[in-house]
Design goal:
The structure holds two protein chains of two kinds.
Chain A: H1 8-16, H2 18-25, H3 29-48, H4 50-76, H5 84-99, H6 119-141, H7 146-166, H8 168-171, E1 184-185, E2 188-189, H9 193-215, H10 218-228, H11 230-235, H12 240-266, H13 276-289, H14 294-310, H15 322-340
Antiparallel strand pairs in A: 1-2
Chain B: E1 12-23, E2 26-37, E3 40-45, H1 52-59, E4 67-72, E5 75-77, E6 90-92, H2 105-113, H3 118-123, H4 128-140, H5 156-169, E7 174-178, H6 186-201, E8 205-209, H7 213-219, E9 222-227, E10 230-236, H8 237-241, H9 244-251
Parallel strand pairs in B: 3-8, 3-9, 6-7, 7-8
Antiparallel strand pairs in B: 1-2, 1-4, 4-5, 9-10
Helix pairs in contact in B: 2-4, 2-5, 4-5
The chains are: A mainly alpha, B alpha/beta.
Chain lengths: 351, 253
């Protein structure tokens, strides 16, 4: 069944009759999930104060870009990829290498080329680099589908991590790259957390806007048809592998942008940010929020960030277990969701 | 006797020349040469496993040809890609209904109407003419009221009708329908018959697989009888059905 948001007239009617409104919405999981997560986010931010809220906003914007872009591939096209973090990494490393100016010659770890580009010049290159990698990988991946697709994308996540770790002449391996440039317009450097959050949010809005533009176009409808039955979509004249490749490259470019923003925000990156686990968490977010819904991915990312940051403040949980505990909680959430609500919090499409 | 019509190639819209398809050691279609007349309704009959569905799959590019050639409107092809079949003015339905299950009924039709060019499709929104065409099709198959349901929530008969509607939306000349009448209750059956008759009267070529000889007699102009992946007989319906070989091999009485 399709659910549409009610009209304003209907809403004002319900507002005057709260009991009826409650009775109607009691079983609306979607509505409650939205209310709960957003209320929790607001309360949490008010409680922890502005600095914390700003950091939370930045982290959310980066995860949201990743989950929305991954949803184009996983939710709308039906290609379950767990290699998305690789494109995030390509974007992050591209921006880091192009903008970092640290004179590594003085360090024993060996020199890497430095370019000293500004952030805004490096960011489009990051998107293009991620897109190019995706194009090459995608041509190979187009031979596979379903379970095998998961495996080869898994392989891509592993390979990309190992490239970041071992291509020392370019990435400095485990030592990572320092002094990634902050976004800068003229002499205005975005070096406060607030400016960076706004920058990340602006990029997120662009990514969400493009995603919305794609899924509401004829192209988007063809993607869902390919997801449902690739062979039949071909019978109706759509060259499915071209469509899959196109959306794969677009999605990777978005992840590349998110990666560029991430490396500029942290100013330091090393391969540990791009491990397979992050990719798995990302897929979990997309499934948690709901496949084939952009709003779901945003909500999923928000829920995840709240979970991730919120668990730090649980009084009974020692700090050193926070990292593991949130994986456990997310895992349990995912299992419960698969059993009771396979379409995710706000989705319609079932895996 | 095998070919009822004159030898003018213009009278055939679809010809197969010695085509074959093997699944392991099994020859599903074995050196089949058959011609399908332009316009009118052609029915393919034959016992189970005689290669009827495989023939449809080969003609629609759903399965690759192992050998031989298909002439579509005079154009000889030894490989048919599924995504090219609309360009050859061919579309099909499936024996087991294959809809785009988790999208709406309306989207199932709209997806057929929009542009096939990848880059322009990114900038194309659903236009009014798409919507009107979709409405026309859905009203024809009696599914307009169901337009916002997911295709997976429809009943079997409705799914069958929607699949035929989706094929109609493509507006091509050759329709390959794999058992369009199977499993329908009488009311739906009449509806499908009416739709196909309407398409025939528009001058399209309809090729359907069926096991129901009453429907074949009623609907078809031409008949192709297959057995063991080979052509047994082809010709005008009554002519073929009166042949003793057909009566013994297929009709069994």
């Amino acid at each position: 069944m399709l659910t549409r948001p009610p009209s304003w007239q209907r809403l004002s009617e319900l507002a005057r009759n709260p009991l009826q409104a409650f009775a109607l919405s009691r079983n609306n999981v979607e509505l409650w999930a939205n209310l709960l997560i957003i209320t929790f986010a607001v309360v949490f931010m008010l409680w922890k104060g502005a600095t914390f809220a700003v950091t939370l906003g930045t982290v959310f914007a980066i995860w949201a870009m990743l989950s929305v872009s991954l949803n184009l591939v996983v939710g709308f096209t039906g290609l379950l990829s767990i290699g998305h973090i690789g494109f995030f990494g390509v974007g992050a490393y591209t921006v880091a290498i192009l903008t970092s100016t640290t004179a590594y010659e003085n360090l024993r770890t060996g020199a890497i080329p430095t370019f000293g580009w500004p952030f805004f010049a490096a960011l489009p290159v990051a998107a293009i680099a991620a897109g190019l990698v995706a194009l090459l990988v995608g041509i190979a991946f187009n031979r596979f589908r379903d379970d095998i697709y998961v495996l080869v994308s898994f392989g891509f996540a592993i390979i990309s991590f190992n490239v970041f770790l071992n291509l020392r002449g370019i990435t400095r391996g485990a030592f990572g790259i320092h002094d990634v440039a902050r976004p800068q317009i003229g002499s205005w450097v975005f070096d406060t957390e607030l400016e960076l959050m706004l920058m990340a949010m602006a990029l997120m809005v662009i990514v969400v806007g493009i995603s919305w533009f794609i899924v509401s176009s004829s192209f988007g409808r063809v993607l869902t048809a390919i997801r449902e039955d690739e062979q039949v979509a071909e019978v109706f004249g759509y060259h499915a592998s071209h469509y899959k490749l196109a959306v794969w490259v677009i999605s990777a470019m978005m992840a590349g942008v998110a990666g560029g923003m991430f490396s500029s925000w942290t100013t330091f990156i090393d391969p540990n940010s791009f491990i397979l686990l992050e990719s798995v968490l990302l897929v979990s977010i997309v499934i948690l929020g709901g496949l084939a819904t952009i709003w779901g991915s945003l909500l999923g990312a928000l829920a995840f960030v709240l979970l991730e940051e919120g668990m730090r403040f649980l009084p009974f949980l020692p700090q050193e277990y926070v990292g593991q505990a949130r994986q456990v909680v997310l895992g349990i959430l995912l299992v419960l969701l698969m059993v009771f609500r396979p379409q995710g919090l706000v989705g319609r499409y079932k895996l | 006797m095998n070919q009822p019509m004159d030898d003018n190639p213009e009278s055939y819209i679809l010809e197969t020349v010695d085509i074959s398809k093997h699944f392991g050691a099994v020859a599903a279609v074995d050196g089949l040469t058959v011609s399908i007349p332009r316009q009118g309704v052609t029915s393919i009959v034959g016992p189970n496993g005689s290669g009827k569905s495989t023939l449809i799959n080969l003609l629609s590019g759903t399965l690759p040809l192992d050998g031989g050639m298909v002439k579509i409107d005079g154009l000889g092809l030894s490989t048919i890609h599924a995504y090219e079949t609309p360009d050859h003015s061919i579309t099909r339905t499936f024996q087991e209904v294959r809809l785009f299950d988790q999208i709406s009924v309306l989207d199932n039709i709209l997806v057929v109407l929009t542009t096939r060019k990848l880059w322009p499709s990114l900038f194309e929104r659903t236009r009014r003419q798409h919507r009107e065409k979709a409405q026309e099709i859905l009203e024809k198959v009696g599914m307009w009221d169901k337009r916002s349901s997911l295709a997976m929530d429809l009943s079997y008969g409705q799914r069958k009708l929607l699949e035929i509607g989706r094929a109609m939306a493509l507006n091509v000349n050759i329709y390959l329908l794999d058992e369009p009448f199977a499993g329908l209750f009488p009311q739906m059956l009449e509806r499908v018959k009416d739709i196909l008759k309407g398409m025939r009267d528009e001058g399209r070529t309809i090729i359907f697989v069926s096991h129901n000889m009453d429907i074949v007699r009623e609907m078809a102009d031409h008949l192709i009888v297959m057995d063991g992946g080979k052509l047994l007989l082809a010709g005008e319906v009554e002519e073929v059905l009166n042949q003793p070989e057909v009566i013994s091999a297929y009709l069994g009485s």
